[in-house]
Design brief:
The complex is a heterodimer of chains A (about 160) and B (about 280). With about 160 residues, chain A is mostly helical. Chain A has helices at about 5-135, 145-155. In chain A, α1 (about 5-135) packs across α2. By secondary structure, chain B is mostly helical. Chain B has eight helices and three strands; from the N terminus they run αβββααααααα. Chain B has a three-stranded antiparallel β-sheet. The longest helix of chain B is centred in the last third of the chain and has 40 residues, at about 235-275. Classes of the chains: A mainly alpha (about 160), B mainly alpha (about 280).
Chain lengths: ~160, ~280
């Protein structure tokens, strides 16, 4: 149990071991742990950012949906109104058209009545002339008595 | 249990034998036990300390070589735990920027623990095996050898001096030894105090480790003496049972002691090295 050269040998061995640890063991492990630390903090930051982005996106999406809904409602209302208007206009047109047709027909009828009356009058005039000729058994100068016939026609009317 | 090979089986011889190193006399190149003089190497202490140190460095180097920042394996996790533990301790105590302190502390923690751990191997196992191989002396716990513990603490001591001079400059360091703590008018007294204070650190460091482990080893040996040469006497059976129980209890307690001593040695190393750099 005495101090001897073992002491010196042990000091040398110790120095070598510490040198080895310092050179070849400590730095790589340190590096790896630092890397992992960095990676973890980056991962956490990314997750946080992701959550925030997700929230933003959700809010934006909800906003867009709401906007789209009002827009759709607006479009629907517009369409409804337009359809109503179109329908109304069509109805109006149809009514006007009908009235026009009815008026035209009525005018035509009136005209036909007038011309029929005219024809009739002319027939009746002619018949009266023929009748009068037969009664008188002689020819009446139609030209000479045209005014009389016209008076007659006017009376028939 | 007994392996005493020198014929006489007395407890005294057994204990004496167990406490003798396998030595190499550097002047005559003779191998034996109980050689006196300075130029002698304790082969067993050196052998076990180097083997354990190489084992430690090989394992840690292997991990460090294929270390990965993503999922670590079990071994890497363990090594990282040791690394992180050391790093935390050093960061808490030491505020310089030396890259030496942390690796130094880790080497001490693990290496001293491994050397202490040899204490838990049954006291006769390795010596008996060595005897069978023709080696008559073997002391398996390197930290029960004063040379080993002093080798560590003297290295720390030298580092303390180096760091003190590095931090304060040669003159600053010298000035502090003369003026601290009582001012320049008590310079000689201050210097004596400095010497005592400075020498006390490595001495207490190594003696604490040595004392704990030596005492522990001695108690293991004493427990082993219980059935030494008991033969087939009636007493042998209860003594044997008692020996097993005591050995078990002491070994379990010793798990704490060896860990604690390795921890204390490493921590105090960090503390001393940071103290010498701090300004008073």
């Amino acid at each position: 149990m005495s101090i001897n050269a073992t002491l010196l040998a042990q000091m040398i061995v110790f120095a070598v071991f510490v040198w080895f640890t310092m050179k070849f063991v400590w730095p790589p492990i340190m590096q790896a742990m630092r890397d992992r630390q960095k990676r973890i903090s980056e991962g956490l930051a990314a997750a946080e950012r992701g959550v925030r982005e997700l929230n933003e996106a959700t809010a934006k999406a909800e906003d867009m949906v709401a906007k789209a809904r009002t827009q759709a409602q607006e479009i629907l209302t517009n369409a409804q109104r337009q359809a109503d208007e179109t329908l109304e206009r069509a109805r109006e047109d149809a009514r006007a058209e009908g009235e026009r047709i009815v008026t035209a027909a009525r005018e035509e009828v009136d005209q036909a009545v007038v011309s029929a009356k005219e024809d009739l009058r002319r027939e009746v005039g002619a018949l009266a002339v023929v009748g009068a000729e037969r009664i008188l058994k002689r020819e009446i100068d139609a030209k000479a008595h045209n005014d009389i016939i016209d008076d007659l026609v006017a009376e028939i009317r | 249990m007994a392996s005493a090979e020198e014929g006489g089986n007395t407890a005294n011889q057994y204990i004496q034998h167990h406490l003798s190193n396998l030595q190499l006399d550097l002047s005559t190149m003779e191998v034996g036990g109980n050689i006196s003089g300075f130029w002698v190497l304790n082969l067993d202490s050196l052998f076990f300390s180097v083997v354990l140190g190489v084992f430690f460095l090989a394992v840690f180097r292997m991990v460090a070589k294929k270390v990965t920042a993503s999922e670590p394996g079990k071994l890497q996790t363990f090594v990282e735990m040791v690394h992180d533990f050391t790093d935390t301790q050093v960061r808490d105590i030491y505020h310089g920027n030396s890259t030496l302190i942390a690796p130094l502390a880790m080497t001490i923690f693990v290496w001293v623990f491994l050397m202490n751990f040899m204490d838990l191997i049954p006291v006769d196992a390795l010596p008996a095996a060595a005897h069978a191989a023709g080696i008559d002396y073997l002391k398996v716990v390197p930290t029960t050898d004063l040379n080993i513990t002093f080798g560590l603490s003297l290295s720390v001591f030298l580092l303390m001096i180096v760091y003190g001079i590095k931090a304060k400059g040669g003159m600053g360091f010298l000035k502090e030894t003369l003026t601290h703590p009582f001012g320049k008018w008590l310079a000689p007294f201050n210097f004596v105090l400095f010497v005592v204070e400075t020498v006390a650190k490595p001495v207490s460091l190594s003696l604490r480790l040595f004392g704990n482990l030596y005492a522990g080893e001695l108690i293991f040996i004493l427990i082993a003496v219980f059935t030494l040469g008991a033969g087939a006497s009636l007493l042998a059976v209860p003594m044997f049972i008692l020996q097993i129980l005591l050995g078990l209890g002491w070994a379990i307690f010793h798990i704490l002691v060896i860990t604690l001593q390795a921890y204390i040695f490493g921590m105090l190393t960090i503390v001393y090295l940071s103290m010498v750099q701090d300004d008073h």
